[in-house]
Design goal:
The protein has six helices and 13 strands. It is an alpha/beta fold. The protein has one domain: CNF1/YfiH-like putative cysteine hydrolases.
């Protein structure tokens, strides 16, 4: 498991290979801000926002620039999900856990760096959809009177609802940490992408 932020601007396959242990093949997605979960295959697995693998040679990769990267492992299976507000509202987290086909209690999840509630101002309609998919306390009033969303908290709520109790979080706000992470809210179209990767290390543990 690894979260990688700012670095040289490389195509995703090349960037992933620089971060992977020897003998691992990167698997990535054409991310579309939905809830589709795909079975892994070497290279691009297709159009979706989560990928699941039982192949020990695979390293699963998602790219983010404010959305929430979610990495999961349990009983011979690993998964990676890209959870923006649309994916959270659509249920990508629960869909990923279900596709892993193991008890939620056996899964360990890692929630990576994403835009925090300090910076993520949204409209009332967006806030209402994320709240409906998670819990009321993931939204709070902002200083300008518009809602601020806590997307990592919404993901944590959805993981708990899916039976996942072992959850670890890296609580960095991507917008607040320009020296470490890319942020679309901060840099716009010029933003690079942060990578989240998961694979099984030698001996079967997550790496």
């Amino acid at each position: 498991m690894r979260f990688a932020g700012k670095g040289p601007r490389l195509a995703l396959p090349e960037a992933a290979r620089l971060l992977l242990p020897a003998g691992r093949t990167p698997v990535w997605l054409r991310q579309v801000h939905g809830r589709t979960v795909l079975a892994a295959r070497a290279g691009c697995a297709g159009e979706g926002d989560a990928v699941v693998s039982r192949d020990g040679r695979h390293a699963l990769v998602v790219a983010t620039a404010d959305c929430v990267p979610v990495l999961l492992a349990g009983d011979g299976v690993i998964a990676a999900a890209h959870a923006g507000w649309r994916g959270i509202a659509a249920g990508v987290v629960a869909a990923t856990v279900a596709r892993m086909a193991v008890p939620g209690a056996s899964i360990v999840a890692w929630i990576g760096p994403a835009i925090g509630p300090c910076c993520y101002e949204v409209g009332e309609d967006v806030a209402a959809r994320v709240v409906a998919a998670s819990a009321p306390d993931v939204a709070r009033p902002g200083p300008r009177g518009r809602p601020h969303l806590d997307l990592p908290a919404a993901v944590a709520r959805q993981l708990a609802s899916a039976g996942v109790r072992r959850v670890r979080r890296l609580d960095d706000c991507t917008r607040c940490r320009p020296e470490r992470w890319w942020s679309y809210r901060r840099e716009g179209r010029g933003a690079g992408r942060n990578l989240a990767l998961i694979c099984r290390a030698a001996g079967g543990s997550e790496g």
